[in-house]
Each structure stands twice: as structure tokens, then as C-alpha cells.
Amino acid sequence: MSSKTGDGRTGLLDPRVAVALPMLCMLGAADVTAAENASTEAAVDTDRIEEVLVSARRRGDERLQDVPVAVSVLSDEALRKAGITDLSEVAARTPSFTFGQQIGNQQEVVIRGIGTLRLTGSAAEPSVGLFIDEVYVGRRGTATPPLFDLERVEVVRGPQGTLYGKNVVGGAVNLIAARPSDETSARVAVSYGQFDVFGGRDMWEGSAYVTGALSDSVAARAAVFYRKHDGYSQSTLLDEQLDDQDNYAVRGSLLFQPTDALDIHVVADFSHNESNGQSRRAVDDPTVPGFGVVVASGLLSDNVRESDAPWTQWEDQDTAGLTARFDYRLGGGHTLTYLSAVRYGDFNGRYSLVGTGSPPSLTDAANGQREKYVGITQDLRLSSPADGGSLRWVAGLYFLREDTDVIDNSIATTFLSVLGPGSVGDILDGEFIYDQENITKSSAVYGELSWALAETLSLTVGGRYTYDDKDYRNRSECLDFGAQPDFIFCVAPLGAEFWDIRTSKSWSEFTPKASLDWRASDDALLYVSAARGFKGGGWQGKPGTEAAALLPYDPEIAWTYEIGAKMRWADGRVLANVAVFHTSFDDLQVEQLDDAGLSLIIDNAASARINGVELELQVRPVSALQLWLSGSYLDSEYRDFIDSAGNDLSGNRLARTPELRFTGGADYTMPIDSELSLDARVEYQWQDEMPWLVENTVFEDSYGLLDARVALQAREAQWEVALFGKNLTDELYRLDAIPFLGDVFSRFGAPRSYGVQFTKSF
Questions:
Q1: Are 693 and 718 in contact (CB under 8 A)?
Q2: Looking at residue 715, what is its pLDDT?
């Protein structure tokens, strides 16, 4: 960690060396996601890279190299070997993808510089869509289960305004659950490890699945997941562990095939997660001299893994879903698909905003959040035959209803309250509550057509007309005015109470897309595309007055222009995918921190432009060795950006957007004898300096994370024993940062961890 985080630590591996080594050793290395898709068993049989299938265009499974779209894939094997169970680890292995998290229901997902930082308001929408088996999840932090028993994860970059159920402006993450199979199989995996902190903190994980035929026309699959770990942070005042986890999940699915023409797939899932909450640490902000010492000089501990917050914290989350999909094959090869689903999420938590008491801090604050989400999806579409000749098309109707209830409770105390009524202590002392409800009804008609102009040249055009209608209710109440005799001011940002205000608004938008792809040879696909995306409008999550609560912000619009190439060389042993793009934004929804009012404000304050290059490479020089490298370069800036305080921020870089990111690694399988083999895997993830805020005053310095895994495998007995390690250089980095009055209240990522895993397949 750099001096900008205030702890003075650095990683053990110089990032410049880390960049050079994988690039030199890999040359034309590997698409990080496609590389992992081939299993170890397949690797020893062939030098060719195994084909990767995706469903990114809603046309059934297509070869990744045949799809003129920037998409990355993590297979079941990749997820298992890397120990991936949440979106943060997917982001680390995907070009142009960054992830942060303030609290469990506030995930900050950014693709190509485009992302919604916090969904504080019940009417807010994410810029990056999350889909589970093609079902949109509007409040991903609240209603997303852990990643387990998946067939693959697909990350599609750029606007998805044509085929995807819900229009998204930045990209889409598709979680595709493993389907039932007629062939009976099962797998059980258990692991034990420790975080290398406080003398060792335990972590346990287990997962299992079983699938097979129940009859000639019915197949079933059941899967379970459990993860529990001690906290890698500690509360010094309350003597309890923080950043811990107790998580379990189940999923069951049935595949009915009553006739040769009809498939019915029903999936149900449930998950529960709880913890003692997170640790947030005050770090001096070097850009605001003189204020940071108010906190930094009074901390009880110098250990960044220890919290001085006096508040009891917690997180408690339940998610559930039920999906039914009907695929009916009509005459002539056409397919009629009907998707009906409901997703549910219930989150309850509280976290310390500041991370220390008052004094030494000016204020001591905590925020409680209760969020309930129900999303109901109806999607009906008709698609042409897969071998339909020169024309292939998809057309459909879509409806989504989302009910989101948010209760936001903030409380603060300050030693400055002794200054009396009318002083600064009045806005730093007290308790208030926001009670919000929003109902979104989104309807759309969409279609896409691909026309083979020649044997090697295809034109694709599509469009989507979306109509969004939102009904919004908000109530605010000051529960405590703080130290007496203050009966005037509530704690900021609430300036005046308002009761049960209601408003509504609708927006509509047409989002077209066009692309031209040329099959230059059997091993080279070139394409150009233009796509328009938009994100719906909404209302402030924490308005200070009734007037501010009633004032909506508008949708944001983005155009992305892209040139790409997907190539194979050396008889299929080298794979290279490249995308070069330009994105232009209008009415960009920007979240700004107002220090004076202690509030987060979302406003259509800016236009922006983003230029980028994404590279994914894979090579298999010999059958036993796979090498991969993926990375991105983003050049972003706000244009015509005047913030809420009147400051001109034009020319600043987009928040949460590092210029350079890469992931590289190698996987080598060495036979020991006819039965046993040894598989060794190493991976390094690195990202460049990144601004946390639109003001570009607080930065996260560049850092890298090193993971490794060594496994002894018995092919015939189908068992594996693996030793694994994550963040082996014990790099200190932040997941979130909130600057306030000269300090940066920081949440840090997990320390070094290591363990052993046993896997048995049947």
C-alpha cells in the first residue's frame, strides 16, 4: 500500500517486474477466461485450445471466436481452480472491470469506466446489469447469491440495449447455472484454510452437487454451498471479529422433456449470509492538510486491521429465486422461448461511517440499511432456425416489475455539540431515517437480425424500444435532534423533515445497434460495431429537503463504437482477441460527495468520453502447459462537468477507473505415473493508480495480487488434493474509500490466506 493510504506498506513484488515477466514468458499468452475453460484432462490429450461456448447473443450456444462481441468467459473449471465465489474475483480476471463494496447491499461494479457507485435510492439503477440464467437482478448487492455450481460466467462489455432483458449502459454479467444431465454424476469439495492475521483466522468451505435422470423425460440437479470464515479484522472496543462471513446456499433444478419439441427448465435457489459487519479505518488525506490529524492522532491502534468504532455492526442477507423457462421448437426449426421468473432479496445491516469515536474524530457516525427487493420478469421471444441460411433473427417482448423498499437510518454524535445551538455541532449530532419505496415497470419490444451479405461477410442490426414507469414514495423523520437544547437542526444531510411525499415519472428510449463482421479466414474474425445504451432516471437517495426529494435526475445515454478481432494461430494453439472502442456519454449520472451537507448527490452533471483497448491472449506451447494474459488500457475524462458546488471538474478522470489492468498466469500439468499427476497454477492480477472520486483528489496506488495452487490428482479414482494461497505477497489495498474533512475512511481487502482442499468426483 502506498503512502496515500497512510500505512506505508508496499507489496513484495514490484509491479513493473510483474508486468514484464508474464508478458515475456507468454508472448502470445492467453485469454484469462478462455484459457481456464479447458480442463486438465483435456489438456493432456491435445495441443489445441478447447472451444469456448457462449450465449451472449441469445441464440443458443455459439463459439466464443465466432461472436462479434467483446465478451470474456470463466468456466466451471476456472471458477473452481481460482476459488471464485463472488463478483469481485470475476472482476479481477476481466479486462476493464473493477469492483468495490461499501456494505453488503452497495456493490460498486464498473466496466469500461461506466458504473453506478452506490444504489442509495430505491429508484436508482445500476449501469452494469447482472443476470442469473438470463433473469435481470436490479439490486445485485441485495438479491445476488454466491457464485457456486455454475456452468460459466460471461462478462459482456459495452451497452447491451438490444437483446438483454433490461437495457444496460455499461455491460452485463451473466451467471449461468449448471443444467441437469441425464448422465449421473456428483462432486464433493471441502477446504480448510487460514487468514494470515492475528495469529491465524480460520476459514471453511464446502460444496457439492448431484445430477442425473429421474425418468426418461425428467432430469434433476441439486447443489449446496457453504462458506464460513473468522473475521480478518478486529473491533478494539467491542472485542469482536469484523469482516467475517457465515454463508450457505442451495439450488435445485428440474429439466422436463415431455416431447421432442419441448424443454421445460425450472430452477429454485436460496441463500443466507451473515456477519458482524466490516472494519473501516481512518487514513489521513494528503490533499487536505491540517484536518486529518483530528482523527489520525487519536486512534487507539496503529494496526489497520483493527477498528476503533464504538458501534455494534452487522450484515444479514437472504436471497431467493424461482425461474421457469419453456423452449418450444416449432416447425421449420423456429424456437419459441418463454421465461418467467421472480427474484427476491432482503438485506439488513449497519456499518460505521467514520471508524472511530468522537473525539478524536469531529463526528462519530453509523449508517443502518434495510432493503427488500422483488423483481418479476416476463420474456417471450421467437428465434429463427440455427441453420436458417442467410438470415438469422430474434424478436421478443419483455416486461419487468421491481418493488424496492429501502429504510436508511443514520446516527451521529460529536463532542462539538457543547458549542451550543446553531453551531456546527448541530449538523453533526442526531439521528434520522429515510423510508423509501419505488415501483418500476419496464416494458420493451426488441429484435435483432443478421444477414449474410456474402459467404464471409455479415451485417447485424437490432433495436429495442423501452418504456420505464416509476412510482416513488419517500418519508423522512428526525428521530433525535442531538444534544439539548437543539430542537432546530437534525443531523446532516436532512435539513427539514418531510412526510410521505409521492411522485412518478416515465422515460422511453430507443437503443439501436449495428455491426459488420468479416470472416477473413477460418481462424480470423474482424468486426466493427456501434451501439447505444441508456440507464433510467430516478430520485436522490438522501435528499435534504422535500424539494430535493421531488426533483428527479434524468437517464444517461451512451454511444459506443468498437473495432475488434478474434484470431487463432498455430493450428489452434494460440488465441488472440482484441477490442478497441470509443464511448461518448451525455447526461452522465455523477455521484458527488457534498462535505458541507454531508450528503451524496446524483446529478446529470457531465458528459464524458472513454477510449480503450482490451487484449485477451492464450497460448498452449505444449499439451501440458497453458499460459494466459488479459488486460486493458482506458483513457477517460469528464467533459463539461461543473459539480454541485460550482467547481469545474472538466478533464478529470472517471472515478473508479484505472488506466491499466492486467491478469496473467500459467497452468502446468506434470504426470507422476500412470495414475497420478501434479497440476500447478499461478496467477497475478495488477491494476494501475485509480481515482476514488470525481474530484480526483484521493487515489488508490497501483497494486498486485498473487495467487497460486498446487494439486495432486488421481485420474482414475477422480480425487484431488490441492494446496492454495491467495494474496501471497500480503498486499494491503482498499475495497472502498470515503473522504470526509481531511480523512479517508477506508475498507481494506482480505490479507494473505492459504489452505488445503479435497475434491472427489463420482
A1: no
A2: 82
Question: What pLDDT score was predicted for residue 666?
Answer: 95
Q: How far apart are CA 713 and CA 716, in angstroms?
A: 9
* Per-residue pLDDT tens over the stretch 512-531: 999 999 999 989 999 999 99
What grid cell was written down for 681? 497454477
Burial of 762 (0-12, 13-18, 19+ CB in 10 A): exposed
Contact 80, 89 (CB under 8 A): no
The continuous run of DSSP H or E covering 530 comes out as: strand 524-535
Three-state DSSP class for residue 656: coil
C-alpha cell at 513: 445497434
Q: Looking at this protein, which amino acid is placed at residue 496? A: A
Residues linked to residue 576 through DSSP beta bridges, in sequence order: 567, 617
Q: Enumerate residue ranges in the chain where pLDDT < 70.
A: 1-46, 56-60, 117, 164-165, 284-300, 388, 417-426, 484-489, 593-600, 741-742
Q: What is the DSSP letter of 179?
A: P
Pair 63, 656: CB distance under 8 Å: no
Beta strand spans in 198-313 (E): 201-213, 218-229, 233-235, 240-242, 245-259, 262-275, 281-284, 306-307
Quote the pLDDT of residue 593: 64
- Residue 20 has a pLDDT of 37
Which 3-state string (H, E, C) describes 702-750? CEEEEEEEEEEEECCCCEEEEEEEECCCCCCCEEEEEEECCEEEEEECC
* Burial of 582 (C-beta count, 10 Å sphere; 0-12/13-18/19+): middle
DSSP helix, strand, coil percent of the chain (3-state; round to 5): 10, 55, 35
**Bridging pattern class, strands 625-639 and 703-714:** unpaired
Q: What is the pLDDT of residue 444?
A: 94
Largest CA distance in the chain: 83
Phi-psi region of 136 (alpha: psi -120 to 50; beta: other; left: phi over 0): beta
With beta carbons less than 8 A apart as the criterion, state whether 532 and 558 touch.
yes
Helix ranges (H only) for 275-422 are 293-296
Cβ atoms of 688 and 654 closer than 8 Å: no
R_g of the chain, CA atoms, integer Å: 26
What is d(CA 207, CA 250) in angstroms, rounded to the nearest whole number? 10
> Do 603 and 646 meet the contact criterion of CB atoms below 8 Å apart?
no
* CA 511-592-292 angle, 5° bins: 150
Please enumerate in sequence order all residues whose Cβ is within 8 A of that of 748, keeping only pairs 6 or more positions apart, or say none: 233, 279, 281, 304, 305, 732, 733, 734, 735
Task: State the cell numbers at 117.
Answer: 457507485
Please give the Cα distance from 396 to 256 (Å, whole number). 24
What one-letter code names the amino acid at 402?
Answer: E
The grid cell for 722 is: 490441492
Q: What is the pLDDT of residue 303?
A: 86
Measured CA to CA, the distance from residue 224 to residue 265 in angstroms comes to: 19
What's the number of CA atoms in the CB half-sphere (13 Å) around residue 119? 33
Bridge partner list, 507: 468
Question: What Å distances lie between residue 490 and 410, 426, 481, 485, 547, CA to CA?
Answer: 11, 7, 5, 12, 17
What local confidence, expressed as pLDDT, does residue 422 receive?
A: 60
Question: Quick one: cell of 97?
Answer: 472491470
**C-alpha cell of residue 352:** 460505521
Q: Which cell is 74 given?
A: 470463466
